[in-house]
Design goal:
A: about 80 residues, about 55% helix, B: 2 domains, six-stranded mixed β-sheet, 10 helices
Chain lengths: ~80, ~250
């Protein structure tokens, strides 16, 4: 079961990921603290999902990510750190 | 040897004879002479399509590939000639399909002093075509992977147009030559970024020059336009109505 994180940025990032995963009707991953350190590739997002994930984050956070930096993020924790900057 | 193969070999001999006869000509003029032989013996060269199990309307592209590869070997200065691309855009997403002539689109775009990114897979076939078209080093390549749309969005923001093939083989029948799937990805990028979108289909004209059928996609309201259907309609109107196009989730 996915937990609610106390940190709002973490919640936004995890929420965006679950929204993208959920729209295809597949099984949603359980998201806990360990999931944040899981390799991002394991969430199996294709190019369209990744674009929509990043754009959903940008809409929520009111900022535009540098593509060079976002593609270098290996885990959700890296993306959360980038989102805070 | 099949009848088509026999006819095609015979036809290729006519080209070899033309090359011997006019060996003092410049590469460009020699290629033009050879292409005239192709056009004058079209019925024999059409057999080339059957060898690839593809509709005989596609014969010119296949013969062009064979002949240009051959020319690159015997005349390393050979460069494919391209017509101009008459579309007015500042930066745009250019949607095309795999024909082996897509780098001709790149060449035409670059000749109009536009900056360009090409979404591609760095496989041996693409490297070979890159060598044929001799594109300048300022062309920016985006690897076709899970990050490609993010990288393409960045390129657009930096003022580069994007060239991408939108078709791919059917997963259930990857060797089928008359059925292809059309991906939604690049059209999704156009919708999400609001970038201009144009459809371009390169072909080989009767002078052996790469020419283009091209049109801008419909303008906004973007959400009401199914770009993928519009693209398939464009392909069908451009002479590819013998192909079957299926939608894919990619």
């Amino acid at each position: 079961m996915t937990q609610v994180f106390s940190d709002p940025v973490t919640n936004t990032v995890v929420g965006a990921l679950l929204m993208i995963k959920g729209r295809s009707g597949g099984v949603l991953p359980d998201m806990g603290p360990d999931s944040l350190k899981q390799p991002f590739d394991e969430f199996d997002l294709d190019s369209m999902d990744k674009l929509d994930f990043v754009m959903a984050l940008e809409d929520s956070l009111g900022k535009v990510f540098d593509a060079n930096r976002i593609v270098q993020c290996k885990t959700l924790a890296d993306i959360i750190e980038l989102a805070r900057q | 040897m099949s009848e088509n193969e026999f006819l095609y070999r015979q036809a290729r001999r006519l080209v070899d004879e033309e090359i011997k006869r006019h060996s003092s000509l410049s590469t460009h003029d020699l290629f033009r002479k050879c292409w005239a032989v192709v056009e004058n013996n079209a019925e024999n060269f059409k057999g080339r399509a059957a060898l690839s199990e593809i509709n005989d309307k596609a014969w010119r592209v296949l013969v062009y590939h064979d002949l240009s590869k051959y020319f690159l070997r015997i005349r390393p200065d050979f460069k494919p000639q391209v017509r101009s691309l008459d579309l007015s855009f500042k930066t745009a997403i250019i949607a095309s399909i795999h024909t082996g002539l897509e780098l001709g689109i790149a060449k035409a775009v670059l000749e109009r002093n536009k900056k360009l990114s090409i979404i591609h897979l760095p496989n041996p076939q693409n490297r070979e075509r890159g060598a044929l078209f001799k594109l300048p080093s300022q062309v920016h390549y985006i690897r076709a992977d899970a990050n490609c749309l993010l990288n393409a969005r960045r390129s657009l923001a930096e003022g580069r147009s994007i060239l991408a093939d939108c078709d791919h083989p059917l997963p259930e029948n990857p060797r089928a030559n008359t059925v292809r799937a059309i991906s939604a990805s690049i059209f999704n990028l156009a919708k999400r970024t609001g970038a201009d979108l144009c459809f371009v289909l390169p072909y080989v004209d009767k002078n052996g020059v790469i020419a283009f059928r091209a049109e801008m996609a419909a303008s906004p309201p973007l959400t009401q336009v199914d770009y993928r259907e519009a693209f398939v309609d464009f392909l069908n109107r451009s002479g590819l109505d013998w192909m079957q196009w299926k939608k894919s989730d990619r």
